[in-house]
Amino acid sequence: MKLYKKIILIVLISMATAGALLVFGYYFIFHKNNIAEEGFIKVYRNMDYEQLSRAIDTSGMLANKATFHFVAKAMGLEDSFKPGLYKFKKGMNNKTIVRSIAHGWQTPTDVTISGYIRSKEKLAQMLSSKLEADSALFMQVLCDTVLMHSFGFTEASYPGMIIPNTYEMWWTVTPVEFLEKMKKEYDKFWNEERCAKADSIGLTKEQVSTLASIVIEETKYEPEMATIAGVYMNRLKKGMRLQADPTVLFAIGDRSIRRVLRTHLTVDSPYNTYKYIGLPPGPITIPPISALDAVLNYEDHDYIYFCAKDTFDGQHSFAKDYKQHLRNARAYQKAFTAREMSKATEN
User: Fold this and answer.
1) Which of 172, 164, 186 is nearest to 108 (CA)?
2) What is the pLDDT of residue 82?
3) Residue ranges of the alpha helices (H) in the chain?
4) I need a surface site. Which of 75, 107, 326, 343 has the fewest CB within 10 A?
5) pLDDT value at position 338?
6) CA separation for the pair 116, 24 (Å, rounded)
7) Residues near 152 by Cβ (< 8 Å), separated by ≥ 6?
8) How many CB atoms lie within 10 A of CB 151?
């Protein structure tokens, strides 16, 4: 009888030990922190499970690969996982990691669109470096005339729909979804106050974007933007040609030209503001908010001309008449020639 009790006791102790080990093992495998280094994993739409596993293994973020793959198999990750950008953070256990990928609990990403992006190709390249879709898909959508017309834009005015800023979005956002978001941000930017200002200066929203694109190509020095905008507004009011060099470079399609010559001014294009009066058909670059607001709040003055200062610091000299403008231009040319000769001597 005593032997029987001892056997029962041993069995019970063994069962308790096994149970404790089982509970501990379950906790260790499923719930223990398994992140060695914080980082991101990109899960593409066309990924299979083998590619996903390899991406996670080679990331160097897991402290224990074996326990992760055990949990992933037990929870059926192979049969169901969602594309997205996922951040692995300290304190995350295998169960949380698997559930995040299985349910698509993405980490949002910041997409910064700077001003003065000069072409659809550049915009597509920039977006593809930040989001899942490649540049070819972005180009296809950016050139979709049916889509741009549905937003209320023409091919010429389309660049103005992009308001440069930093936007939080999902890495998996499609090109169409991206542009839909841009349209919402455009409508948000053009609030009642800005629309009223545009109306008060006699420009449409599209024309403000176009003029802002010229201003930002003329100067990156923010304190001068409103002054330069004022020069062009004065020319528009007087019925003068804008004679903006950046529009000629846009018409030619060569931004590498450093100095606009007389031969360049003969190009027959509605963007050649030396040839045609008024604003060109649309923006020549994606203007930043600073330039847009500079146009809306342009400086009221009597300047008609401006040219680069002989200090070569990005600032400009302004003139109310052509004689003063010629003096300013000669001072710049003299300084420019002297600087080039100095460079040649040094070389």
Assistant:
1) 172
2) 94
3) 2-31, 49-58, 65-74, 94-103, 120-130, 135-142, 145-150, 175-189, 192-200, 205-218, 222-238, 245-252, 289-296, 322-346
4) 343
5) 81
6) 59
7) none
8) 15
Residue 15, CA distances (Å) to 9, 70, 110, 190 in order: 10, 24, 53, 71
Kindly report the pTM of this predicted structure: 0.84
Tokens of 253: 């399609």
Smallest CA-to-CA distance from 174 within 138, 219, 199 is with: 138
DSSP state letter for 308: E
pLDDT at 1 over 60: no
Please determine, for residue 318, whether its predicted confidence score (pLDDT) is greater than 60: yes
Tell the residue number behind the tokens 């990331």, with chain if given: 59
| Cα–Cα distance list, 291 to 47, 86, 182, 222 (Å) | 42, 36, 18, 8
What contacts 56, CB < 8 A, 6 or more positions away?
A: 41, 62, 68
* Residues 278-288, mean pLDDT to the nearest whole number: 96
Average pLDDT, the chain: 88
Distance CA 145, CA 123 (A): 17
